UniProtKB/TrEMBL annotation:
InterPro entries tied to this protein: NA-bd_OB-fold, RNA-bd_AU-1/RNase_E/G, RNase_E/G, RNase_E_G_thioredoxin-like, S1_domain
Domain of life: Bacteria
Pfam families noted in UniProt: RNase_E_G (PF10150), RNase_E_G_Thio (PF20833)
Molecular function terms from GO: endonuclease activity; hydrolase activity; metal ion binding; RNA nuclease activity; rRNA binding; tRNA binding
Name of the protein described by the UniProt record: Ribonuclease G
Cofactor(s) demanded: Mg(2+)
Subcellular location: Cytoplasm
Length: 534
């Protein structure tokens, strides 16, 4: 499979499209006035500790306070002696060996977790420590964003800092060496683990490392360069943390790379044939970054200078519009219906106009198999996360159910997000989860409809007419003085009142002994109306 990266830059936003064999597979959008927070490291202030939820809200300088759960506080230093008077204790930091600093006075820095020193205090499992014993209001704490703000929810935080590079992820507070699950070969996994362990001893690196998928078959000298880069980055973060004014409630310590540079670091791999960029300045920045960190892609970076939009040439704009639709058509004539709610996303598979050839079971089987490809693509393209319910068409044969599930799992192996799938239930449903770290495409580009308030439907004109009749009768009983009622409503409602419901209006006028007149207000929605008493 061949891949291309298209990087489109405008004064308002940056967009990166991933094309799989010429078809849009993923889209990343970053608004310049609203940059993503994932990966950023902040020195925040604890605003509130909730023992009942075992969580805390932390001010990191955003519109909403961020959320920190006790399970995301991986480690805690065990104090040598408990000081009930909360006297300030300071453990000095030595930049040469990257040791930790812990300051526990109310207005001082509380660095959690213990950073990188093997000589730091003993750690205990988080399950044995309650959050109210670890945090208190007004405490300063070093945190990293793991999830952007989603809807009405604030960002999700962790105190377990992780710093990614091209081939590795550095975990200052861990002592674990891990290998990406996407690296299958046992021999290669063993090689990476051995070489990383050796390099950590050579450079005296304290902490943990994870080898990313891109590290497969990478020579040891490249891994060593990454380690030195990450070590220097962590030292810079530690130095920056010490320079912060203690009177500031929050401060950005480290900001993730811009979207174009992140895409080169995280999305480029051996199958990437070309990176096309339509902005001169970003083109030069990406080339410089690639030369330093991803040299194999350097000669594949192309500057697009034609007049026609880069995304129009590759039909990305059309695919983006389709990705916001509820219905996804399949080539066979079947289709998917995708509904995203607060709690979960549901995907319904339908045969549509596809009638098959041999039998109903065969038609259903082929439609479901085709749907697995479309579902996997739509999950990536729309960035759907959380709980996802897949309603495949009911199949009778167990082998067909197994084939459909196997096909879905195979398609999801290309997904960067972590997924988990259950077996086909008795009702023909497949439950799955997909890790969510940022807003879905629909949440990022759209907002709830101002007419229906996000319901997806409005009251019929007939329903509104009947509401108006009831309201007129209520007003007549309450107010005896009005001689005339004037109904102000949407054109569709007024038309119905003057045509199909004209007899009802006449009967109401006779019953109440008052005149009813009508005015059209084009600015009203179909559900809006007013009754003016004259």
């Amino acid at each position: 499979m061949s891949e291309e990266l298209l990087i489109n830059i405008s004064p308002m936003e940056s967009r990166v499209a991933v094309l799989d064999n010429g078809i849009l597979g993923e889209i990343y959008i970053e608004r310049h006035h609203k940059l993503g927070l994932v990966g950023n490291i902040y020195l925040g202030t604890v605003v509130r500790v909730l023992p009942g939820m075992q969580a805390a809200f932390v001010d990191i300088g955003q519109s909403r306070t961020a959320f920190l759960h006790v399970n995301d506080m991986q480690r805690e230093p065990r104090p040598v002696a408990e000081d009930k008077s909360k006297a300030a204790t300071n453990i000095k930091k030595d930049n040469s060996d990257n040791s930790a600093i812990l300051e526990t006075s109310t207005d001082s820095l509380a660095v959690t977790p213990p950073v990188v020193s093997a000589q730091s205090t003993e750690v205990v499992p988080v399950s044995k420590t309650l959050i109210q014993h670890r945090l208190h209001e007004s405490q300063r704490i070093l945190v990293q964003v793991t999830k952007d703000q989603l809807g009405s929810k604030g960002a999700r935080l962790t105190t377990n800092i992780s710093l990614p590079s091209r081939y590795l992820v550095y975990l200052p507070s861990s002592d674990h060496i891990g290998i990406s699950q996407r690296i299958d070969g046992e021999e290669e996994r063993t090689r990476l683990k051995t070489e990383l362990s050796s390099l950590m001893q050579t450079v005296n690196l304290k902490g943990g490392l994870i080898a990313r998928t891109a590290a497969e078959r990478v020579p040891v000298n490249k891994l060593e360069e990454d380690i030195y880069y990450l070590l220097q980055l962590w030292r810079t973060i530690c130095a920056r943390r010490q320079e912060i004014n203690h009177h500031q409630s929050s401060e950005l310590i480290y900001q993730e790379l811009s979207l174009p540079l992140r895409s080169i670091r995280d999305l480029v791999h051996a199958d990437t044939e070309k990176v096309i960029i339509d902005n001169t300045q970003v083109y030069e920045q990406v080339r410089y970054f690639a030369k330093e960190f991803v040299p194999f892609i350097y000669d594949k970076i192309v500057h697009y200078t034609a007049e026609q939009s880069l995304f129009d040439v590759h039909r990305v704009e059309d695919d983006l519009r389709d990705a916001l639709k509820r219905r996804v058509d399949l080539k066979s004539g079947g289709y998917l219906i995708i509904d995203q709610t607060e709690a979960m996303t549901t995907i319904d598979v339908n045969t549509g106009s596809f009638v098959g050839g041999r039998s109903l079971e065969d038609t259903v089987y082929k439609t479901n198999l085709e749907a697995t490809h479309a579902i996997a693509r739509q999950l990536r393209l729309r960035n759907l996360g959380g709980i996802i319910i897949l309603d495949f068409i009911d199949m009778l044969e167990q082998q067909h159910k197994d084939d459909v599930l196997e096909s879905l799992q195979a398609q999801l192996t290309q997904d960067y997000a972590k997924t988990k799938i259950t077996q086909v239930s008795e009702l023909g449903l497949v439950e799955m989860t997909r890790k969510r770290t940022r807003e879905s495409l629909g949440q990022q580009l759209c907002e709830p409809c101002s007419t229906c308030q996000g319901r997806g439907f409005v009251k019929t004109a007939e329903t509104v007419c009947f509401e108006i009749f009831r309201e007129i009768m209520r007003c007549a009983r309450t107010y005896n003085s009005p001689k005339k009622f004037t109904v102000v409503a949407h054109a569709a409602v007024i038309d119905l009142l003057l045509t199909s419901e004209s007899d009802t209006v006449a009967d109401l006028e006779y019953l109440l002994g008052r005149v009813i007149t009508f005015d059209v207000e084009n600015l009203y929605t179909q559900e809006q109306y007013d009754i003016v008493l004259d």
